[in-house]
Every structure is written in structure tokens, then in C-alpha cells.
């Protein structure tokens, strides 16, 4: 993409109402614009990151055997009355009357609706297990929306729902999602720790939050340090036994302030104890017959009898992750995107737009990097060098290539790695080969 | 995908409330489920078609130089009050009060919001032209939703907005979209005719609807037959002169009942006169300063003076197209998907699941067709052959491969082309080569 033909409205000033880094940087880097409290437009640069995250989340769900569908944003209140949630949900639910005075709502979650869909079609244990998911905009009417996309009102979420004949099978579905989440977050370039969550009245041990560590995290995390060092499961057979991947993590202490047990924590060797702030980016939850019982979702079992189906839900905050990744990966100059979710791979800075030689060198780099799959953003504007450098650091592409008349005289361009600041001078061809190699593995 | 692991709830009976073919077939083929009046869940098969259409629409927008972003579904009423549309819109607008009693609405369209975004950032003619688009769910609270996704309440639309310094430049943006639409619909496998639309109080000649012909179309179309035969522009230079592609179409008569002029129509040679029913799938519209003037969207011109920006909007009904394509392409047995938007490329029918030889032949075909990029759906269920044939015809994949013990004895499988019903017996390897070739061009 040529910057002159793009829409990248960066801001010089930090907006006063943005208090955390991700909110400030997303506004300044032209990724989002606030339209109302807690409601944002995703400008082109922000949307690219959002879609890359969404794609990775989708690929890992598919790999785990979950099947994608899409439920609507607007739901009838009727289903929520069946489960008793219409009254229970409180003012965070955006309640709507349509033109015929029917009670509707903008879905904050979809357990009720997916259970209705399930019971409409599935009658036999032979069709189980089923893992269905969708990636859809949700709405929660937060009293005080804040922190940009981290606690907005309209947000994009991936939510998966499992349906199983009994708790033992449901555990297998739960494990699939546990492993899929580990792989998902690893591919997103972040370290997410599975932390035991509060099961509430449902009870049991099958509920985890996935948190990433960042200073601005909303909750305190207490955990065994080794959790941070474990490699993701990677390619596994999702129809096989996944318990090794889950068990070795669950064997290590990890809790938020909500579920923290000081005594258990103290039992960890002192040098392995870790306390930090965490941001929740995923939550998986087995809830048994909480929705299927009141809604009568039953299947015929192998024993010829009807069984109430056992369910779980599994969420990932897709839009929240954009902010969370920035919280975990930025510096005073701007964002530092992991390669897998960077809006563009490489920024090309033309230090003298209009200069015949510089323009030609940039054009040829631009075509070569496009062909090499590095998805370059070419700053072909007439802005001063300082403006170009600052903007490129702000938007945080993994690599920058600076092309100027002085370097070209010596046959070199400058390649900079955004994360480390490391720079090296290379011939244009060597730069292309270097960058192509860097992206080959993504 | 293996059918046993998918979620494809086909219905035996035609639902009584579905009156047109696309609505009936989408329900029967397990593509959608109605959740409330005019509000649908997209089941896995339907979602795959929706996403394929969306992807083609996106690619052609990008090719034309439009830049993608994403505006939220929920908007503040304030912007709509600025343009006077809040009162004008009527009961089709879904009006919402949030928990702080602020007036909000579920966006039925986005001229007001995009104009606000534009005026927040763009100050100079040097940043023009701008073509911005998004693909987002909209809501129109139809009094009587009907015809399934063809006239639903929650629907997916691609809407592009152009911003130009004057009418002459705006015409160039309009032409870009005109050409992009021709290419888009051609890639979707349908013939869409640009028909002059009613400009209303705005006046001028820059407004067209794109309609496809189908018996169930909502409006009468009168046009010159040659319009149906013209090849799409294909690869063009969008920064160059596009008028030849537009002018040669506009030179031929085409109107709906709304804009029809019987005398002009009669001037067409009799054998070239055509009358048919049409479904609107796109609408492009130049409206000048209708939104930019009341909202004060101005830029500094090359003359050093402020100019009110001239705008246009360009819509494609993405979810509606799923139904419209079925209306244009089905038979008594089910859907007949064009290759470019088919949910899967090839259906594999195992006539004797459980038979060792049949299973092995199907598995090997399945892997080979996956590797060949034919996106197979393998019916590995224990259902009877008749059920499998009927279901495969119903969902309408372009090709079917039937594998049975009798054929295998002779070393052949049967390949069927869904659209023509033509069948041929081929060795499994020849079938793979044939199908791979068929999909190589998509």
C-alpha cells in the first residue's frame, strides 16, 4: 500500500481522555476513532490488525474441530426469558423495542440462542460432540466505558459452545479448547497463562481464564513462573488424548485475586513465585446443564433414553486483544507489533520523495517486497524525514527500510528492526532477501 | 470437511412460511435458521457462501482503490440530527435508548458517520479523492420482513463512500465503482445489469441500480438485450480513463418500472427489447453536498479557498446476494452454485460407508481433492444412497463424485456436474485431474 493512497490519520497530540498506552496509541496511530462512549470505528490500520487476529483465532478453532457459523446481533428477548437471564442480566444488556413493540436485545453473549439452535436440529448422541462457534460483534452497555477497545461497549468476540452427552465427554471438548487457546495466543505473539477462575454456583474445576501480563492489567495474577516458559502444544491430534498438555499446566499454581489462595502460592519455591498484573483475553467455562435443562435440549443416548445435553462456552475477546497486545508490546515511541498480527510487514521510508533516484529505488523495493509477501507500506508522501520516522515508529511495523540519496550513493538502504531498534545497512537486494526470510516463517 | 463432523441440518419438508425458492432452499439446505422475524443465524453452509461473496466484493473494492475500514453497528443519534435524517428516516430505523438515556440507533446506513469521520481528519484537496468502505451488518426494521435474507431486518452490506473536491472528480470515483461493480458481479457468476435509477431531488445522471434477472424479482426491468451479453471490463487501470466501459453501457436503454420511459424503450429494435423481473443487488449514487454541506465537511482547495466536499455512496447487498444468486440459479432439486461462491467445490458420496474398499477409495479421493484445492465435502455418513444424492443436489455443490462398490470393481467413480446433470465415469485419478482443472481457473 502507498501511504498517499491510504487513510492513516495519525494524531500529533495524545488525546486527553486516554489514560492507558493502548488507548493512546490506537488513537494516535490512526487505528480507531471514537464515535460514542465505548463505541469505535476501526480505521484501516486498526481493522487490518483486528482481521489478522480474527483469522488466527478462526484457524485454530477450525483446527480443533469447531465449526463456524454466525448468529445475529439482535436477539428476541423470548429465549432469554426461558433461561431466566432476561431479568437477571441487569443494565449492561442493551434492551430494544422494535416497531411492533416486541422486546429485543443486542446480544451480549449467545448461550441461549445457540442452545435454541441446537435443540431445533440435534436429536441423537450420534451427532455429538458438537463444537460450534461464531465471531460476532457483541454489546454490553458498560456504565463507564474506558480504556479504549479494552472495555468498550461494542466489541468483537469469538464464542464457542460445546454440546456433549455427559460430563466426561464435555471434559474432552473443554480440553480441545484449552489446547486451541494455548496455540492461538502463541501464534498471536503473546504469552497467555491459563489461570483458574471462579466457577461460582456451577462448581467444579473446569473454568479457566487466559491472561496476559501487562502493567495496566485489571487484575492481580499469582502464578508459578514456569507457566511463562512452556512452549505451546503446537500440532496435536485433537481427536486424541490432550490431557498431558492441560495437566502439566494445571499442576502449576495460577490464580487471579478472585481465586487466589495465599497458602498454596507460598508453597511454590520462592524463586518461582510470580506476581504481576494481568489482562483477561479468554475465558473457558463448563456449565453443564445450566442452559440445556431449562431449554429442554436433550438427545437420545445409546441407552435409548433421553439425556440433557452438557454444555460449555469458550470466549476470546478479539477486539480487546488488539489493545491487550499493545499493552504487552510497545515503547515510548509507539506500538511494536508481533509479526503475525502487524498491520503491514515492512515500512518503506523514502527520505526524498520527488528525487528521481530515491523514487525509483523505493518503487523497485516496494514491488519486490510485495512480491515477496512482506506486505509493505510505502511512505511516498512529501513529509519531512522526521515526520516519517516518527510515524513509522508510532504504527510499529516489525521492519523499516529507509531509502535516501546518501545511502543510495553507497549502494545501501537502512533496515531497522522496530522491536530492538537494531539497524543495518544492506544493498537493496540483500534487504529484500533478509526481509523475505524473516516473513517466510510467519 | 467430513459431513459427520460438520453441522448441516437439512430439512425434509419445505417450511410453510417460505414462499420463494431462495428462502425455501436456504432453510431446507441448512444454510440459515430464522431466530426472529427477518433475523437469521447463518449456519455453517450459509456462512461459507456469505464469506465467499464478501471476499470477492472486498477484493474488487480494493482493486478499485477503495480502502476498507469498519464502522460500528450502534450509532449516536446526534449525527443523524445534524443531517436532519433522524426525524426523516421513519419507523424503519431501530431506535435505542442506552442506560444513560442517550438516543442511539442501529445503523441502517452510514453517510452521516463517515462524513463525520472524514471531516475530523481531512483538511486538504491533496488528500482527495478518498474512497472508503466497510462491510458491516445493518438493521432496517421492515414492517413486514419476508423472502428470507432477501428482505430481512439484519443484513450485511458493503457500503463505499467517495469524497471529491468537485463534481468532475466525483464522476471519476463514480466510474470506478461502476466498473468495480461490473467485475464484482461477473466474478460472482451472475449477470447484473446497470439500470438508471431515480435521482430524486438530487437530480443528475449519476445514479444506477444493478439488477439481476430472476422470475421472483421485485421490480420490472426494461432493457436492451445486448447489455446481457457484454463481457465485464476485467483488469483495467483504475487511475486511467474508465469512461469507455461506462458509456457503452449507458448508451443502451435500461430502466426499472420506476424510471421506465415507454417511448425510449420502443425505439430499441424489436428483437433487442427485453422485459423481465429483476432483483436489485447494488446501488450507486452521487449526491453531491447532501451530507457534507450540513455537516461542514470542507477542504482547502488548490485555490487556497475552502470547498465543500462532493460525495457519493455505493452499496452492495452482500447477504441479499446469497438469496439472489439462488433465485437466479437453482432447479427443482436445489441450489446450483456458481463455482466462485459455492460453499464447497465437490461433494464426495460414499455409497457404502463402512465398506472397507469404498471407505479407502473415498478417503484417498478426499485427501487428493483437498490437496488439489477443490474443497471437498465428504458424505461419510451411514445414510442411504438416496438420502445422500438428494442432500447433495439440494446443497448444490458444482460437482459430485459418487463412489460405490460396483464402480470400484470396474475401477471407476462417477463424476456429476450439478448444473447440467451430465455424468461421466472416470478412474479416481482421472476424476481428480478433471476436478483440479475445473477449479484451477476460479
Notable traits:
alpha+beta, BirA Bifunctional Protein, domain 2, homodimer, Rossmann fold, 15 helices, 2 domains, 442 residues, 33% helix, globular, 5-stranded mixed sheet, 9-stranded mixed sheet
Low-confidence stretches of chain A: none
How would you name the oligomeric state of the polypeptide chains in this document? homodimer
Query: How many domains would you count in the coordinates of chain A?
Result: 2
Which architecture name of the largest domain in chain A does CATH use? Answer: 2-Layer Sandwich
Radius of gyration of chain A: 24 Å
CATH homology superfamily of the largest domain in chain A: Bira Bifunctional Protein, Domain 2
Task: Tell me how many strands of chain A there are.
Answer: 23
Q: What percent of the residues of chain A sit in helical stretches (DSSP H or I)? A: 25-40%
Mean pLDDT of chain A: 96
Distance between the termini of chain A: 20 Å
Largest β-sheet summary of chain A:
9 strands, mixed
Please name the two chains that share the biggest interface, counting residues whose Cβ lies under 8 Å from a Cβ on the partner chain: A-B, 50 and 50 residues
Domain Aminoacyl-transfer RNA synthetases class-II family profile (chains A, B): 38-338
EC number (chains A, B): 6.1.1.15
Keywords (chains A, B): Aminoacyl-tRNA synthetase, ATP-binding, Cytoplasm, Ligase, Nucleotide-binding, Protein biosynthesis
Subcellular location (chains A, B): Cytoplasm
Amino acid at each position: 500500500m502507498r501511504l498517499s493512497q491510504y487513510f492513516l490519520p495519525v494524531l500529533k497530540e495524545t488525546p486527553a481522555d486516554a489514560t492507558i498506552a493502548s488507548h493512546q496509541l490506537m488513537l494516535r496511530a490512526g487505528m480507531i476513532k471514537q464515535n460514542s462512549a465505548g463505541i469505535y470505528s476501526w480505521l484501516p490500520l486498526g481493522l487490518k490488525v483486528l482481521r489478522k487476529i480474527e483469522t488466527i483465532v478462526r484457524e485454530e478453532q477450525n483446527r480443533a474441530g469447531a465449526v463456524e457459523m454466525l448468529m445475529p446481533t439482535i436477539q428476541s428477548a423470548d429465549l432469554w426469558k426461558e433461561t431466566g437471564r432476561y431479568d437477571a442480566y441487569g443494565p449492561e444488556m442493551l434492551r430494544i423495542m422494535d416497531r411492533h413493540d416486541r422486546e429485543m436485545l443486542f446480544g451480549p453473549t449467545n448461550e441461549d440462542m445457540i442452545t435454541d439452535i441446537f435443540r431445533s436440529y440435534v436429536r441423537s448422541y450420534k451427532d455429538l460432540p458438537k463444537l460450534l462457534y461464531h465471531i460476532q460483534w457483541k454489546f454490553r452497555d458498560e456504565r463507564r466505558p474506558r480504556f479504549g477497545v479494552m472495555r468498550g461497549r461494542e466489541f468483537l468476540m469469538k464464542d464457542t459452545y460445546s454440546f456433549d452427552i455427559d460430563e466426561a465427554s464435555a471434559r474432552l471438548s473443554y480440553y480441545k479448547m484449552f489446547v486451541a487457546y494455548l496455540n492461538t495466543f502463541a501464534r498471536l505473539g503473546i504469552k497467555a497463562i491459563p489461570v483458574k477462575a471462579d466457577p461460582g454456583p456451577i462448581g467444579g474445576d473446569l473454568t479457566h481464564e487466559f491472561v496476559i501480563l501487562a502493567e495496566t492489567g485489571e487484575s492481580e495474577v499469582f502464578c508459578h513462573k514456569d507457566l511463562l516458559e512452556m512452549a505451546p502444544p503446537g500440532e496435536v491430534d485433537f481427536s486424541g488424548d490432550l490431557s498431558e498438555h492441560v495437566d502439566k499446566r494445571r499442576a502449576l499454581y495460577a490464580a487471579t485475586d478472585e481465586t487466589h489462595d495465599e497458602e498454596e502460592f507460598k508453597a511454590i519455591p520462592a524463586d518461582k513465585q510470580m506476581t504481576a498484573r494481568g489482562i483477561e483475553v479468554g475465558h473457558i467455562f463448563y456449565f453443564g446443564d445450566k442452559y440445556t435443562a431449562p431449554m429442554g435440549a436433550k438427545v437420545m443416548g445409546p441407552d435409548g433414553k433421553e439425556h440433557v445435553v452438557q454444555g460449555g462456552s469458550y470466549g476470546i475477546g478479539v477486539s480487546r486483544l488488539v489493545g491487550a497486545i499493545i499493552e504487552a508490546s510497545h515503547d515510548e515511541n509507539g506500538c511494536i507489533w508481533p509479526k503475525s498480527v502487524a498491520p503491514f510487514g515492512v515500512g518503506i521510508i523514502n527520505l526524498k520523495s520527488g528525487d528521481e533516484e530515491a523514487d525509483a529505488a523505493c518503487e523497485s523495493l516496494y514491488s519486490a517486497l510485495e512480491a515477496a509477501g512482506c506486505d509493505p507500506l510505502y511512505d511516498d508522501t512529501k513529509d519531512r524525514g522526521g515526520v516519517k520516522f516518527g510515524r513509522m515508529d508510532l504504527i510499529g511495523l516489525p521492519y523499516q527500510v529507509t531509502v535516501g540519496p546518501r545511502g543510495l550513493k553507497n549502494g545501501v538502504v537502512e533496515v531497522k528492526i522496530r522491536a530492538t531498534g537494531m539497524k543495518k545497512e544492506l544493498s537493496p537486494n540483500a534487504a529484500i532477501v533478509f526481509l523475505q526470510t524473516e516473513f517466510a516463517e510467519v
